[in-house]
Amino acid sequence: MVTFTARKLHSQFHLVLMVLACGLFTACGNSPAATQPAAGAEGEELARLLAPNEADIPYPIYDSFAEMAGLLKQTDDRTYVINFWATWCGPCVEEMAYFEKLGSEADEEDLQIVMVSLDFQKDVRTKLRRFVEDRKLKLPVVALADGDYNAWIDQVDPDWEGAIPYTLVYRGDERRQHSVKFNSYEELQNFVAEVN
Question: I need a labelling partner for 166 at 20 to 30 A (CA). Which of 6, 130, 158, 185 fits?
């Protein structure tokens, strides 16, 4: 687990120092991610949230959490897996293959996985893009460049202290959170099945 405790940080400067001290910077990039949103108005909202919003960037970039908060409020019959990660987070990168495998094996009508990158704003158009493209990620990627973590982390989960990787799995009103790295595909699969 990367200690990305946003509530305990008083500035992005402290966050940068923490990351540097942990030596977690790695190459990064991004790629477009296909998705089959649910039908109807809610499906249209999900498709809008996952659609690229800048020319030549294959995923949406949101400067504020409020712009993408709808990803955490879908009410259709699907199970949603929202993973918060960053390219510089070693444990996040290690578990990414498990999410890709789950996405490739799951029925798109029943399960929607979204990878929410918390990469630094200066990196979401460059390093994140290279990372996603180099790894040929197929899951939807959303870049959240809102560095005011204290303002939005409680909206995801009041108990989340900001460490990544962090995974929220929900279906309707049922929600489960996982605040450490998944150690195997089976662990992720079982965790999701408990909500599914």
Answer: 130
Tell which CATH architecture fits domain 6-193.
Answer: 3-Layer(aba) Sandwich (3.40)
Listed by start position, the domains of the chain span: 6-193
* pLDDT tens track, the chain, 196 positions: 554 444 433 333 333 333 333 333 333 333 334 444 445 666 899 999 999 999 999 999 999 999 999 999 999 999 999 999 999 999 999 999 999 999 999 988 899 999 999 999 999 999 999 999 999 999 999 999 999 999 999 999 999 999 999 999 999 999 999 999 999 999 999 999 999 7
Cα–Cα distances in Å, from 106 out to 8, 36, 154, 194?
37, 12, 29, 15
